[in-house]
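User: I'm putting together notes for a lab meeting next week and I want to include a structural view of one of the chains we've been expressing. I don't have a solved structure, so I'd like a prediction I can at least talk through. The sequence is below, exactly as it appears in our construct file.
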Amino acid sequence: MARLNEYTKMSDKLITNVNGLLSDIKTDIIAHNENRKKTAALIDSLKSKQDNLSHFMKLDVDIDELLSASYLTVRFGSLPKDAYKQLKIIEEDGKFIFTPCSSDDHTIWGVYCTPKKYEKKVDEIFASLYFEKLTIDMDDGTVAEIIKKNADKIEELSEQLDVEDGIIKRTWDENSETILNTYSLLLDLQEIYKLRKYAAVNGESFYYVGSKDNMTAAHKTATWTAEGANVWNTLVGNNAKGFVAGNGGVAEFDDNTQQTTASSHNFNTLLAATSQRLYANVSGKGLMSAPVDDLTTDAWTAEPVSEDDNMAQLPTKGLASATLPLSTNSDSRYVVVVGHNDGEAYSSVWAKVEEDGQNKQQWMQYPYDDNDNRLPAFDNLQMGVYNGRIVALGHNNGQQTAKMYRSEDHGLTWQADTCW
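Assistant: Thanks for the context. Below is the predicted structure for the 420-residue chain, given as structure tokens.
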């Protein structure tokens, strides 16, 4: 009781003075920490621009003048080397010029220019070849000159960052004892305050009651039951949920919950699920999608499909899907669906870029003319993403073992993985 009374008196004094005690310290550290965050963000932004620009060092033109051209559309970006071989053939029609600037073992970075009247068609061609756009800001000078200006600015901002770090460290060092003592006392008072629910006062008497609770664990298992006319089709999932669909709606589930959203659509099969959208082949309507947080009938909208592709060729057998984030925009991703139809010896690949959860970009079937590195058709196929590449594990009915393939260019070409 003596210790409790002591801490009660201390707590009254502490609660009265703690705001005044820490207010100046808190204000000082927060202000400099905000300055530090802004400076660090500017440095990160400039470094990201440097990384993008570094691929175009050979481009000896004024960037501002190039991007300001009145009658030209100019795109900076990259595409797989295998796709570049096909681009060399297409380029002969004279509607665009692609200038390669740098490359590594798998990728070529470059710039394409096209008259504005051909912009839509040429953008579709490059999208079908997995061209990833890079944002290059308008700035005076060549790429080399802009990189030099950015490097000087990064050095200047880094010096400002060191100054802010020094002020924050000095403020903490000068006041650390006061802060730690206050924190320790508050923790102690919190533990004592918890005793109040076990205490009672009756007149001059003080009672404290302790008990040991009997703890029980409960585990709930989510189960699914297909009832009535519901016929559930292909299971797909993202990192958070799984989805199944049939002629009664869409069911979604995770480890603890399950729910079904009724729909008048008749789903042939689900194709893919990302963190933001669910994709399906809908009877009589073709490719459709809906936000994963709203799967009601009206939320489903038709997916745009390239005019060069035939929806009748959309695969229905041995389906699997994978999603890969764009290296230039973490809020956008490639959606890749693989499968085949009856009688086909090889799988076909349909893909699109999902930008910020929207369905603006077109689905395209990758053309396989003169491509010897295709994925065989499998009765059962599973796909995943590992280290930036798609890994496919396929098995045909009657076979004793499965086969593994990998693609390092978003499903464009496939190689058998002989390590498995």
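A couple of points you could mention at the meeting. The helical segments are 2-54, 63-67, 81-90, 119-128, 143-193. The CA atoms of residues 74 and 188 lie 64 Å apart.

User: Perfect, that's what I needed.
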